[in-house]
Amino acid sequence: MLFKSLNLSIDADRLLGRIRELGQIGRDDDSALTRLAASEADKAGRNALVDWMKDAGLEIAVDRIGNVFGIWRGSDNGDHAPILVGSHIDTVINAGIYDGCYGVLAGVEVIETLRSAGFVPSRPIAVAAFTNEEGVRYAPDMMGSLVFAGGLSVEEALATVGTDGTLLGAELERIGYAGAEEPGFLQPHAYVELHIEQGPVLEREGIPIGAVENLQGISWQRVTIEGVANHAGTTPMAMRHDAGHAAARVMTFLRDRVSGSNAPTVATVGCINFEPNAINVIPSRATFTVDLRDPDEMRLKNEETALADYLIELASAEGVSISVEQLARFEPVIFDNTIVELVEQAAKQRGLSSKRMTSGAGHDAQMIARICPAAMIFVPSAHGISHNPREYTSGPELVNGANILLDVVGKLAGLD
Ligand code: HGY
Ligand code: MN
Ligand code: MN
Prior knowledge:
binds manganese (II) ion, 14 strands, Aminopeptidase, alpha/beta, globular, Alpha-Beta Plaits, 12 helices, binds (2S)-amino(hydroxy)ethanoic acid, 2 domains, 20% strand
């Protein structure tokens, strides 16, 4: 398939300015950026995005799980399935400004560039900002795109209780983004997500474009260990049922096991809480999360089984009881090779090298791939850092990625 670039380029100042501007929304007194799903900060970010979508002349639609869409129907193609681009604008705690936001704002920019160049697409083009991709406040992550793809009922999602005890549905109502459209009201012809790599590979190899061909599986669990509170000073070590110590043993078990294998499996304990959380009381309860990931479903299953077996052994060794709640479970996804090839061809046309790669992070594309051909485009992350205020990608690298998105969308929208 001969790939002729559109010889267009996005408006770099407009895109980079919006990324910076959105990156200022949700900063606290210490200037840390946190825009958790359905929070006041998320509301402010969504409002800014909707304004930019309107400036681009897009039709705005919001579905019942709060996914925001900007749609360009063109003129004579209302009944064709649209090309969909997008990502998310919710963030983790103390986040960087590029994760998710870059893909959404580049999507608006691509449509704006195509429109002002006078192109009429052979099918509508839409850009989405999916609700709660991060899953920090409400689990699972990629929730908005999962509901949109039919993997979770909207009623169940709206009934999710957050880490702060709030109800997602009530919070979406409160911030004015409990939309009317049924999730899935728009069935995409294809989906392309532009995102920062959030890892070290592209920077280390000096490659500007990642053509993402697959994405690893994700398993999120919450583990609760019930021990016995007792006096830190008077209780002999052999008599303790220390939930805190048991939790620590799980963390070292995971680290030793995963680091000891030469598989790409990764394991993270990101949240932990002790009760009663007092300096001189042996913890009666430890609650923590386990994030396991692997590009291979069988290996991921094996890691889950190894952890489950270890917890049984640990419970009897420490005289504690252990319960586990599954918070998220997504299988690895293979993306659409035709779109991956378009990414590679677009890069080549622009004289940019590219590399096929696996995504270590979860993305909305993982969910949308369930309902249409999907793929992703990566650009480098400085020092491979993400989910951290030091997250950074240079302007020229961001512009490269947006221009590749422009070319791929133009191709998919039938513009040679
Ligand atoms: O967890 C992830 O990989 C994504 O950032 N939600
Ligand atoms: Mn992301
Ligand atoms: Mn993220």
